[in-house]
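2024-03-11 09:14:02 INFO receiving multi-entity request
2024-03-11 09:14:02 INFO entity count = two
2024-03-11 09:14:03 INFO echoing inputs for audit
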Amino acid sequence: MRIGIVCPYMWDVPGGVQAHVRDLAEALIDDGHRVSVMAPAGDDAPLPAYVVSAGRAVPVPYNGSVARLTFGFLSANRVRKWIREGRFDVLHVHEPAVPSVGLLACWVARGPIVATFHASYERSRAVSVTAPVLHTALEKITGRIAVSDAARKTLVEHMGGDAVLIPNGVTVDRYAEAEPLPGWGPDGTVLGFLGRMDEPRKGLAVLLEAFAKLAGERPGVRLLVAGPGDADDVYAKLPKNLHDRVELLGMVSEADKIRALHSVDVFVAPNLGGESFGIVLTEAMSAGATILASDIPAFRKVLGDGQAGALFATGDAAALAREAAALLDDPQRRAKYSDEARLAVRKYDWSTVARDVLRVYETVTGAPVGVEDE
Amino acid sequence: MNTTVILVVGVVIVLTAVYISWRAGRLDRLHIRLETAHAALDAALLRRAAVSLELAGSRLLDPATSLVLAAAAHEARTAGPDEREHAESDLSRTLRAVVDQETFAEKVQAPELLAELDASVAKVVYSRRFYNNAVDVTRVAQRRFLARILRLAGHTPYPEFFDIDDDPPKAMAGA
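2024-03-11 09:21:47 INFO inference complete, emitting structure
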C-alpha cells in the first residue's frame, strides 16, 4: 500500500506524536508498505529517507503555550505537491485539529483520509471561532482513530461522532537489550522508578515512604530514579542518612532510560491513577524488568491480572514495602515475572498496532480511488 | 441611484449563488463519503459472515458449536434490510460464545483462519464507526434550512445509523 503520513510537529524536536509517527512508519515499512512522512523540520536537520520536510515551523502562541507550527500558503503548496507526487492509497493525518501541516493536508486532499487524535484538551476559543473553516477540512476524514480513552472523549465532546481506539505501541526490540548503568544492578538490591518526580499522580511520594521503611530494615537496598523534577524536593522527603542510597538521574535520554530499566531488580510503578494505558509499564516489560505496580485498572490490565508483574494496593506504602521485600528475596519469582512480562508485552508491540492501523486503512480504501489534491 | 440598486442586487444574487453552490458541493462530498462508508460496512459484514461460515464448516469445532455458528452466519447473510441489525448483533453474540469457550485456543489449531476471523471482526467495528460518523454529519447537513428548502440533497434519502452489538470476542479484542 502507498501510505502518506502527516506529522504536525517538528520532526527534529522530541515529542510523543513524533515518536508515534516514526514508530508507525517504520513498522509499516518493515511490513513492506511504501511510506512517506511529511513533517516540519529544521533546514539542516538530518531526516530519515522516508521523511519529506514541510519547511520550518514557526513558534507561535497557541492554546496557552508556544507551539512550533507550520502554516501558510507556501506550506499548503508543499503539501499539495507532496500529495500529487506521492499518489497515495491512503493519507494518514496526525492531530488534524492542530493548525499545522495536518490540517493543511486535510484541506487540500481528496480521497481516503484517516486521522489519529492524540491529545486531550479543553475546548479552545480559536477552535470555535474558526469552526466552519475547520469543519470543512475535518469533514473529509473518513476514518478516525484515538490513541487513548481521554483523546477519544475529547474528540467526542468537541467534534461529535466517534473514533476507534488503537493505543500507542511500544517497539519491544528496542528495549530488549541494554548495558546496565555503571555502579548499578541488577544485584538483588535495586529498586527503580521512572517518571516525573513532581507530579503527585505518578506516586513517587508513596515509593519514597516505602523505601524509607525498607531501607531501615535492609542496609543494602538502593533506589534509582529517572525523570524530570526538582531533586531538592525529593531529598526533603527522605531521612538524611538515606540520601546517598537514592540516586536521582533527572531527565534522561532514551538510551539511558533503557539502560536504567536494565539496572534495577524491581521496577516500581506506584501511580495513583490517571494512567489511561500505562506506556511506562509496557516499556519496562519490554526490557524484561520485574514489575511491582499499583493496582489501578490500566496496570492490572496490562499486567494480565498480575500474571506478568506483582500488584500492590494503590497508595499503600506499607504494602509496597512488603511486596518489594518479598520480591528482592525471591530471585526465582523475579525471573518468572520477567519472562511473563516479555511475553505479555508482545501484544502491545508496534507490529500489532501497525496491523490494526492497516485494518483501518483497508476499511476506508474499499473504493479503488486514491488520494488526490483538490 | 437605479444603477446602484441593480449593482447591489446583482452582487447579492451572485454571492448567494456562490454560497448555495458551495453548500451543495459540500453535501455532495458528504454523500459520496457516506456511500463509500456504507459499501465498506457492507463488505466488512459480508466478510465476517463468510469467515464465520468457513469456521463453522471446518470440522475444527464440535458439531453443536458448528451448527450454532453456521445458523447465525446464515441468518446474518440472508437478512433483509429490516432484520439486518438484529441478525448481525446475533452473529456478534454467537461469535463471542464460540470463541470465548474455555478450551477454544487449544482445540482450534487454525492460525490463518483465526487471523482472518480476527481481522474481519475488527473491520466490522471500524467500518461501523466510520459509517455512523458519516451518517451523523450528513444528517446535520441535510437538516440545514437551506438544504431543506432548496432540496440540495436531491433524491438521497435521510441516512439511518447502523446500530448493532459488535463487541468482539475477548480473545480477539486486539490490543
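2024-03-11 09:21:48 INFO post-check: The radius of gyration of chain B is 24 Å.
2024-03-11 09:21:48 INFO post-check: Chain B touches chain A at residues 26, 29-30, 33, 36-37, 39-40, 43-44, 119, 122-123, 125-127, 129-130, 132-134, 136-137, 174-175 (CB under 8 Å).
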